[in-house]
Amino acid sequence: MLTEFILGEQKRIILISLITGVVLMLAKFSAYFITSSNFILTDAAESIVNVVASSFAFFSIYLSALPRDENHPYGHGKVEYFSVFLEGGLIVIAGGIIVIKSVYGLLNPEPVRDLITGTIIIAVTGLINGCLGYYLINKGKQLRSITLEADGKHLLTDMVTSGALVIGLLVIYFTGILWLDSALSGLAALYIIFSGYKLVRRSVAGLMDETDFGVVTNILEVLNEKRKEEWIDIHNLRAQKYGSELHIDCHLTLPNYFDLNRVHEEVSLVDKMINKEAGVKTELFIHSDPCLPECCHYCSMPNCPIRSEAKRIDIEWTLDKVMRNKKHFE
Q: Does domain 213-322 fall into CATH 3.30.70.1350?
């Protein structure tokens, strides 16, 4: 039920973003046709990306909500990374086209008109995008949705671009220097390309299963805080993100005299604790290892019937230690 609520909330938010994007796109192109400003065209062209990206984001959230099947045993959550990749790629392409048009405008400057009207339109659209962007980012963090976060950051980039655009248009209006229109347009396009690159980089990281150190560090904080004496060590930990879900597999070392029922109980406790305390829905695959005599010097298990030496040290579970494929022998 919780997952269905989250996905429904994501679709509702993306739909709001899509409808708003269409309205703002029409407003920006109206400003361009009124002014004939390449600088305003920069913002208008990026708004097309907003609409296309939001459309694909809506589809990707629908697809990620589909249940697992034989072809997708981990679900369809990774489609969100394709959504982010598309958004970033379109931003880079739009920025490149605007750079080319800006260079042409510098070589063949054209007069602009009604700049104050165009400036007011752009200022209003930028303010709306900024408010919507902050809303999407906050909701994306709450719902653990990379798609909402990416869309929100894109809209914040659009707000920054619009702010620079308003300042630039006012400078052009008061100075009358026409070539500034194309020059500022080119600079804004370079910023747009950089923001698109960052989105592409993030999507590729997700598709390549790059470790999300922030998420893993948060989980380790929970494990260290709630650690039980029976949990001797954790190692060979790996994490993958699939949409809003996290998948973790690791090895958990337990006393070798525990029977199968006790082992299952301890493994289940780790699973429940992470899902309750870490703030992200997590599927865990935990392989249980029996302890060895070499574990005794850092084992906290009281009244152990097989202890070969007294405990000498405490070992904190850190990224460096838990990601290695070996017990914490020192």
A: yes
